[in-house]
Amino acid sequence: MKYLRLFGLMCCWLTVCRAGALELIVHVAPLPPYVLEGGRRGIASDIIASALASQGVKTKFVLSNNKRMEMEVKNGSADAGFAGIPTDDAELFFFDPVIEFENVAVTLSSQKLRLSRVADFAGQRVIAFPNTKRVLGAEFAAAVSRSTYYVEVGKQGSQLPMLDASRGDLIVLDRRAFLYFSQLLHGEQDSRQRYTLHAVFKPVQRLLGFRNSEQRDRFNLGLKAIRQNGDYAAIVRSYTGE
Question: How do the domains of the chain map onto residue ranges?
Fold first, then answer.
């Protein structure tokens, strides 16, 4: 009992210190171009930091994974987690999306493939990202079950080189991730000519999950502020040129 009381006092002390310093601990997973350099940079990291800074709050990013992220936000070791926590979790607080992921299929323009719907993936060699079947749902899973080759690669930066080497007929990834990696590899002009994008998926909203509603509300005020003053668009443009 003595140790439990001591632990409780320590937790309260940490919370007060963090609240006094107005700093939130945010867990993020590596996800170029949204989370880069150990979480310190990236579209999502910059948006989160800018939104909170507009409300007088500092941000400390911790590189994490989905399981650890959810656990530490729930137990109070962290204040929020980006994109890795199920949004139907009743113990946490969500509101406005930080950003929308726009998944696309990408093919080599020279192949002249026509993909107007997910069902057209059947019979093709598909290179996807981790957990694509879960993220994109039953229709995608059914289509790729009839593909001649299907693989999910851990590093999305390897998808375009694999496509360039004809190891697949198409890759599936977020549109901004494609822009980021393709411009690194080939430059903007060459990329436009080399690749064709097929918009066959609906956008997916990615949210920040908080352990209390006051923190969530403060972030949402900041998010609205940077959307209105142009900072949000400037952050996205700085990474993708859009």
Answer: 2-98+206-240, 103-202
Q: What are the distances in angstroms from CA 109 to CA 169, 191, 194, 241? A: 11, 10, 6, 21
CATH architecture of 2-98+206-240: 3-Layer(aba) Sandwich (3.40)
Q: How far apart are CA 48 and CA 224, in angstroms?
A: 12
* DSSP per-residue letters across 51-113: HHHTTT-EEEEEE--HHHHHHHHHHTS-SEEES-S-TT-TTSB--S-SEEE-EEEEEEGGG--
Q: What is the DSSP letter of 144?
A: H
Q: Is the pTM of this model over 0.85?
A: no
Give the model confidence (pLDDT) of 122-165 as tens digits.
999 999 998 899 889 999 999 999 999 999 998 889 999 999 99
Best CA proximity match to 156, nearest among 178, 137, 185: 178
In the numeric block, which tokens belong to residue 41? 């940079």
Name residue 52's beta-bridge partners: none
Categorize the per-residue pLDDT at 13 as very low, low, confident or very high, splitting at 50, 70 and 90.
Answer: very low
CA distance linking residue 153 with residue 235, whole number of Å: 28
3-state secondary structure of 176: helix
Tokens of 21: 């310093």
**pLDDT cut 90: percent of the chain above it:** 74
